[in-house]
């Protein structure tokens, strides 16, 4: 137990050291606080790198902005009218007393005042269109409404006069002298409007906000506007005032960056250790993951230093693509998300960058779940470009509610980004060579039967070639059933027996009635048969076949025994109580992965299936069970990552494939005389 803990601790410590090294490189190139003197002019480009605020900076408006704000406020200021809630009650109180008619007229007056009554001058503004809206101040509560529905005192009186049709009520209405009582309940107050205008103007001309610590003050290449000029001056003034705090502030910024990057890289380590242990166990895979994250950060930081918005040109969709071809989709997505989050702080609009890259990387992974051809990358690049443009337009509408500020600068960057994504194919080969990976594209190319070794195998050992094809089909079906790399298994199966080309006649599938083993002692025969493993490894290494494929050659027999020759030897030497198994044992090792375990099972099952006397389902099931159970009991799969739950799925996949391969044909009935006669007549007509 302690040894396991030590090994695990050593493994974790190495991964942590790689993460720390990556974090150091990344933080080193993060933009930090600067306190040097800048030279800049209004209307000219900002020639320095992106300037990050080391502390909060208030945004003071410039004089031109102040004047513009005053003009804008005057044009958009909505007049304020004070609501007098006592008007209606005072009018009703001034009406003559009457038990019958007073209540009726009072109700009509109260209803008529609900839409609001203003002065004749104000109603003229409404009708002229200069007062489309107004604000109503009612007991310190401000609300804005349309001027539609407002009426004047004169119009209100005329409306009431026209609505009263009963003669007795109308006489009361006339005698009530309402023309003298009616007055506006919405009153324009000059003092109130001036006070609110001044308050709003003060708010507008006060500090326009704050450039928060860590935000960009200005980006490289941006034209220095009047506001930028004011912000830069404010920054320099505050910087002079904070001379004593500069060193501490800079250290805190760097500390925050270190913690931020380490947390993200730590999350990546945690993901691999929990959900992708195969990657976590491989030092090369771990190094590749951190290298690709660091590389794309450096590219983004470098372009951002020379081109405003340069990070958007870096084809981040390459990160999930290059990860996907060597690992699984979930890992590709997680790695790309971590890379995007690390790069985001060096961009001007981090949220925009994160959103666009999130969409692009997700689409890239979805469209390349099984990369086999270069044309797929072109399709993916097109989809990425469409998603980039769609995402950018969506953000413009979401943030601004209009496309008036739309420029083609950013879309051009994104399109260049998408075009560069299609070049991921070029990087696959150097990555494979550097880290010892094998991509699906390479596996597909290696599985081409026109490859030199396979074509040679087909010519020299046609029986072995057909056997390898059958094994590949069996193993691929089982790989699909248990969720492992189907293409890797199929390609490994094609190459697993290439060593037989050195002595093709000594293998049953290539023999034609003559068996050269009959003239040899069992141990010598065993040595020739076992030699096809070492011969195959030499051929594969000479031909540059990747190590992933060579493992299938070395492990497809594991450390098993050539039972036929061993049993023959034992029968020929009955006096030996403990015969030496070494001459009859394959060099191994036993299968180390689920893929090579599948090949061992498929190899034995396919070869044994040829000796079946009948191909009923019961016979096939019995054969598959016997061979696989025997291998497991002998411990040949003990070092493999194969799981118990995989075994029934593998057996069922083998049975289905063999049943299809050896299905019994329907026997045709003998041709009756009339059928033959009819066929002869038909041929004469033709």
Give the SSE layout.
Layout: H1 2-28, E1 51-52, E2 57-58, H2 63-76, E3 80-83, H3 87-93, H4 101-112, E4 117-118, H5 120-128, E5 133-138, E6 141-146, E7 151-152, H6 153-163, H7 167-175, H8 178-181, E8 186-188, H9 190-205, E9 210-211, E10 216-218, H10 226-241, H11 246-275, H12 277-281, H13 283-306, H14 318-324, H15 329-343, H16 350-367, H17 374-400, H18 409-421, H19 424-435, H20 440-446, H21 452-460, H22 462-482, H23 486-495, H24 522-542, H25 547-555, H26 563-572, H27 594-609, H28 617-633, H29 646-661, H30 673-685
Parallel strand pairs: 3-5, 4-7
Antiparallel strand pairs: 1-10, 2-9, 3-8, 5-6
Compact summary:
The chain is mainly alpha-helical.
Low-confidence stretches: 1-9
Shape: elongated
Question: What is the count of helical runs?
Answer: 30
Proportion in helices: 55-70%
Radius of gyration: 43 Å
- The average pLDDT is 84
User: Taking strands numbered 1, 2, ... along the chain, how are they ordered across the largest sheet?
Assistant: 6-5-3-8
- Number of domains in the coordinates? 3
Largest sheet: 4 strands, mixed
Q: What is the SS-derived class? A: mainly alpha
Q: What's the β-strand tally?
A: 10
Roughly how many Å apart are the termini?
85 Å
Describe this structure in words.
Helix 11 (246-275) packs antiparallel against helix 15 (329-343) and helix 22 (462-482) crosses helix 29. The chain contains 30 helices and 10 strands. Helices cover 62% and strands 5% of the residues. It is mainly α. It is elongated, with a radius of gyration of 43 Å. Strands 6-5-3-8 form a 4-stranded mixed β-sheet. Strands 1-10 form a two-stranded antiparallel sheet. The chain has 3 domains: 2-28 and 253-435, no CATH class; 82-204, no CATH class; 458-661, Orthogonal Bundle (Hypothetical protein af1432). Mean pLDDT is 84; it is low at 1-9. A hairpin with a 2-residue loop joins strand 5 and strand 6. The chain has helices spanning 2-28, 63-76, 87-93, 101-112, 120-128, 153-163, 167-175, 178-181, 190-205, 226-241, 246-275, 277-281, 283-306, 318-324, 329-343, 350-367, 374-400, 409-421, 424-435, 440-446, 452-460, 462-482, 486-495, 522-542, 547-555, 563-572, 594-609, 617-633, 646-661, 673-685, and strands spanning 51-52, 57-58, 80-83, 117-118, 133-138, 141-146, 151-152, 186-188, 210-211, 216-218.
């Amino acid at each position: 137990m302690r040894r396991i803990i030590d090994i695990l601790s050593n493994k974790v410590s190495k991964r942590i050291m790689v993460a720390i090294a990556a974090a150091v490189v990344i933080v080193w190139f993060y933009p930090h606080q600067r306190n040097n003197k800048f030279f800049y002019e209004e209307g000219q480009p900002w020639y320095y790198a992106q300037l990050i605020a080391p502390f909060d900076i208030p945004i003071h408006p410039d004089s031109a902005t102040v004047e513009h704000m005053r003009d804008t406020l005057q044009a958009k200021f909505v007049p304020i009218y004070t609501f007098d809630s006592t008007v209606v009650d005072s009018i009703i109180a001034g009406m003559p007393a009457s038990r019958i008619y007073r209540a009726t007229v009072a109700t009509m007056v109260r209803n008529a005042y609900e839409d609001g009554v203003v002065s004749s001058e104000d109603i003229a503004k409404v009708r002229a269109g200069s007062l489309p809206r107004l604000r109503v101040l009612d007991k310190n509560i401000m609300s804005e409404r349309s001027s539609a529905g407002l009426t004047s005192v004169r119009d209100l009186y005329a409306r009431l006069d026209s609505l009263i049709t009963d003669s007795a009520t109308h006489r009361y209405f006339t005698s009530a002298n309402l023309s003298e009582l009616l007055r506006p309940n919405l009153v324009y107050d000059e003092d109130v409007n001036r006070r609110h205008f001044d308050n709003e103007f003060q708010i507008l001309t006060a500090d326009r906000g704050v450039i928060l610590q860590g935000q960009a003050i200005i980006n490289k290449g941006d034209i220095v506007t009047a506001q930028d000029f004011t912000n830069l001056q404010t920054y320099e003034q505050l910087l002079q005032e904070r001379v004593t705090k500069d060193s501490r502030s800079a250290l805190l910024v760097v500390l925050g960056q270190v913690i931020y990057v380490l947390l993200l890289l730590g999350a990546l380590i945690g993901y691999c250790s929990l959900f992708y242990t195969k990657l976590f166990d491989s030092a090369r895979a771990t190094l590749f993951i951190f290298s690709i994250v660091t590389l794309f950060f450096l590219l983004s930081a470098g372009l951002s230093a020379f081109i405003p918005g340069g990070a958007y040109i870096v084809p981040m969709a390459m990160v999930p693509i290059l990860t996907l071809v060597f690992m699984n989709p979930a890992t590709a997505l997680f790695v790309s998300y971590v890379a995007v989050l690390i790069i985001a702080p060096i961009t001007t609009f981090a949220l925009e960058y994160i959103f666009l890259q999130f969409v692009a990387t997700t689409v890239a992974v979805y469209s390349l779940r099984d990369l086999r051809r270069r044309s797929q990358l072109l399709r993916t690049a097109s989809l990425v470009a469409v998603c980039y443009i769609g995402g950018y337009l969506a953000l413009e509408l979401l943030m601004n509610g209009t496309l008036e500020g739309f420029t083609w600068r950013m879309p051009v960057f994104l399109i260049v980004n998408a075009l560069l994504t299609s070049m991921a194919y070029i990087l696959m080969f150097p990555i494979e060579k550097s880290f010892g990976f094998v991509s699906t594209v390479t596996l597909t190319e290696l599985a081409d039967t026109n490859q030199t070794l396979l074509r040679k195998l087909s010519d020299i050992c046609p029986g072995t070639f057909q056997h390898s094809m059958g094994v590949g089909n069996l193993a691929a079906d089982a790989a699909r059933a248990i969720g492992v790399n189907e293409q890797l298994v199929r390609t490994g199966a094609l190459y697993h027996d290439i060593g037989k080309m050195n002595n093709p006649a000594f293998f049953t599938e290539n023999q034609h009635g003559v068996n050269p083993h009959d003239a040899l002692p069992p141990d010598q025969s065993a040595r020739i048969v076992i030699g096809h493993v070492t011969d195959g490894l030499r051929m594969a290494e000479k031909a540059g076949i990747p190590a992933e494929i060579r493992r299938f050659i070395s492990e497809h027999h594991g450390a098993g025994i050539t039972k036929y020759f061993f049993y023959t030897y034992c029968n020929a030497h009955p006096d030996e109580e403990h015969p030496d198994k070494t001459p009859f044992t394959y060099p191994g090792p036993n299968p180390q992965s689920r893929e090579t375990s599948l090949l061992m099972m498929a190899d034995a099952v396919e070869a044994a299936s040829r000796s079946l006397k009948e191909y009923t389902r019961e016979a096939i099931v019995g054969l598959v069970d016997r061979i696989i159970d025997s291998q497991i009991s002998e411990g040949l799969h003990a070092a493999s990552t194969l799981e118990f739950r995989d075994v029934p799925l593998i057996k069922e996949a083998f049975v289905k494939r063999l049943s299809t391969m050896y299905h019994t044909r329907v026997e045709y009935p003998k041709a009756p005389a009339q059928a033959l006669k009819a066929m002869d007549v038909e041929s004469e007509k033709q």
